[in-house]
Protein 1
Amino acid sequence: MKITHADHTNWRVKDVERSLDFYRDVLGLEPFGLDEYERGEHPLVSLRVTPGFILHLRPDPSFEPVSTGGYDHLALVVEGTNPDALAEHLTEAGVKIEGRAENVVGA
């Protein structure tokens, strides 16, 4: 057996609209199944991260995120920008940048 790639991740979110504002409107991820969710036919909203990877957002009004010290996160690779331009884009979109990492080693 060999694992070839990740297919999806599921995240609980307190506010789906606020999450869509970020993932769709700020990061540019394409949602699908949104109409079905809004009609109550599907319990979650999905966003295409890459052709082979999906982010599912499941609403949970009782969910209270807590600091995990950097664990429990989704790391995305961004092309066509640099860290300063990305930080400016996020700030202009109203995203509070809590900190910036240098020399991060990923996958």
Protein 2
Amino acid sequence: MDTPNDAQLPAPRASDADREAAAAVLRAAVADGRLDLSELDERLSATYAAKTYPELERVTADLPTEALRQRPARTEPLRLKTKSGTIKRAGRWLVPPVIEAEATSGTIKLNFTEAECRHLDVHVQARTTSGTVLLIVPHGWSVVTDDVSSTSGSIVNRVGVTGEPGRPQITITGGVRSGTIKARHPRTGFWRRIFGP
């Protein structure tokens, strides 16, 4: 039986890590179409103002969070390297904060359209000799290529540096000799049916 003192115990205090975990759930919900951007802004404000677990639980109570709790965010870099072959990341995959992509004369293709990204800032360190590093990025994300150098190759950013609030930004650094580093949105309509995303 609870004593009067037990009934008056305060709710457990939330940590910074708890608030960031709740924020990651909210951003994932936007990516899944469960929340719109105005709801995200409102709930993020409540999340970062929350002091206790019950306050955080109210913010995410109507969202699927169990799978996210069981699958921790990836923190170690993803290292991809090819000499003349093709390496792809597509479908459902967990995006780390740092990706190292090196294509000598082959192709590395990173398709983020169905990926699970819990980081607002993703750094792609890309290097090509005569190969290609291609990023396929969802609408609402942004891509920055200001720190990529080129000898005689191509650096193409068809995504743009301005994204939607609360959506990830990919910063690409590295260099191109005679190859290509390219970021674009997924294809749609006729061209998607012919060439894929």
Protein 3
Amino acid sequence: MLSGSTVVAAIQSLRETVGPYTAAVRSRTIYSIRNSRIYRWFTAPPEPEVIVIDLRETYLIAPVLALLDRTVAVLRPWFHASQLKRGTDILARLVIRAIDTRLGRTIVALFEPPELLQQPDHENQHGESDGDQEPPT
């Protein structure tokens, strides 16, 4: 019934065009986030001398967090039906297309962690590359 529809054809064309970019952006974003210093800092196990306090169990913060949870639960359906959501979806598609440009790749490279960049081999005083040496035993 909908096989000849131009709307269905447009959606399928959009899905075929944007689909590979979405997967690439998603995997690159996940990779960059998981290798960022702040992610590792947040997910690192606590040091033994650090005391961890669950703020949900405090008298001051627990009611604020409960109110925030209820507010988000009420606003979520409205957000999903809003123009703001549609606008952010359009913006996300534009960003996905922009990442494949030279400027987009440059901006992504600026946010990559420094340890992921290729380090050139340095020669030592004997003219040997650092990568050629065997580890000390």
